[in-house]
């Protein structure tokens, strides 16, 4: 019985592996590369196509394998993501970028939560959308999902908003910079790009289009935002405990509140610290990063496979309205902060 269950799980995992391999192949097509669609983004699209076509024609016993990829594989992928960062990167950019990143992340997440309340949105979807917009796109949404344990379709909806507005920004930022609408120095534009664009891939794409001087600083500023995922997840976990305690006081029995420490986030931070010592050969780290991209692609594909059109309809238009408001803040508010605050702290 146990071996049958394990075999069924392996079938589900192998299905996701095959879809992920296809995502890498599609992601390597020149047209897709120009759009800077990473294999992770392609993977979630393939997963959603599967969810809305073949899903009902395959054995239900494969579902545990798919869900394994949305949880355990996801957490491992986030831990290994730390090999892309070092604490030296933070020092290289300095205090100004850290201050600006902290302002952007804090206002975006807190503002998004309150706007979600005004829109009477589902709390999980509002939080996931806000974290994705505020920190590092899909990776942040996945990290928050693993902490709050929301339903997969809510995660997919939040990631969709990140992909849409992040992709628009990737083309919009270089255009507005070249036409002089963004009246910023190279250094300011680098900080602005890194602190306001959604995905790392979007920052790389927009930065390359504006030149190496902007690209280098933009990527480092973006990576500092990625590091902020750890304290944000710890705060979310603590807030969940407080909310649970409040419910208990309200008279609900049988509920115990305890802090759920996102160990994968701590692991992520420890890996960054280890990577900062530069103990591993560059090729080995590159191999780990490639493997990690594949793991995250598997997680994204599995999340897509849990998302049907009916669930998108259930989520409604509100997540996209929230993402649009946050997008306007990132561009407008971010520009004002960079333009008028950086002269005093750079």
From TrEMBL:
Main location, first listed in the record: membrane
Keywords tagged on the record: Cell membrane, Membrane, Transmembrane, Transmembrane helix
S-adenosyl-L-methionine keyword on record: no
UniProt superkingdom: Bacteria
Membrane-spanning ranges: 12-31, 37-54, 90-114, 126-144, 156-176, 219-241, 261-279, 321-341
Mode of membrane association: Multi-pass membrane protein
Localization terms from the record: Cell membrane
Cross-referenced InterPro entries: UPF0324_pro, UPF0324_YeiH-like
PANTHER family with a match to the protein in the record: INNER MEMBRANE PROTEIN YEIH-RELATED, UPF0324 INNER MEMBRANE PROTEIN YEIH
Family membership: Belongs to the UPF0324 family.
Name of the protein: YeiH family protein
